[in-house]
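USER: I would love a firmer grasp of how sequence relates to backbone shape in proteins. This is the protein in question:
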Amino acid sequence: MRIKGDIIRSVRKQKKLSQVTLAAGICTQGTISNIENKNICDSLEILDAICKRLNLSLESVLDDNEEKKLTNLLNTVEELCNTFKHKEAQALLKESTINVSDFQNRELEIRWFYYMGITNLLGYNNTTDSLFYFYRADELGDANSIYAILSVNSLGIVYEMADELDKAQVYYEKSIEMLNKMTVKMPIKATKVYFNTAKFYSLIKNYEAAFELASKGMALNKTYQSLYMLDLLAYEAAFNAFMLSDDLIVPDYSSAKAFAAFNDNQSLLNVIKNDEKELKR
């Protein structure tokens, strides 16, 4: 994708960072050089991480107006999905006149396929279309594409919803393997992969694996000093810890309740209230 490399160079120098320092944990020094001198970057995920390190908005460095429009659209769609408004998100995607196939930006295309898939699945239970979009994202993605990994993870959701648990497990496990093979800093969005997979393992009564994955998601939040899905992860950790230990009389939902209250997640608070009545030894 075409970007404004001069902005990144200028801010990097203002912050007295070398190219090597800016690249650390994100990409190679050569990638920074290409960004600054050739005004190109092949990965939206890498560019986003660089912008965050420099305290820049992603939109401020994109050089293509259509790419900016699509990035803004997908950011809005993502916010809607994070609050479970998948039907509204799907409507925005359908209304858009932007043709994603016209772009050279592969990561934007993968991101679009992922959100087309997840909004069809969770908004309308449309498994046929969602399978197409998730498989397409997986085909296009590379080892560091978080949206390709999320698409593979979502294939697990599709098969779980169809009660084909053996197939679901294949894709949940594959998504975790893909996370482990990333050669860039793991993005906070990987939290979704940990949560979805932990929830599945809890369903099939592999409580140890579920607890471990929920804990990894919580640790990732700590790395970013974030609260992203932390209420849901804390719930999974507490529930699975309870199922693993005969010494606990009731699950310790104190952290989950605090995070759920902070996030105004009333549905989770209702689940916890019910568990505290039902899950007693």
The CA atoms of residues 134 and 154 lie 7 Å apart. Residues 5-61 form a domain with the 434 Repressor (Amino-terminal Domain) fold (CATH 1.10.260.40). The chain has 15 helices and no strands.
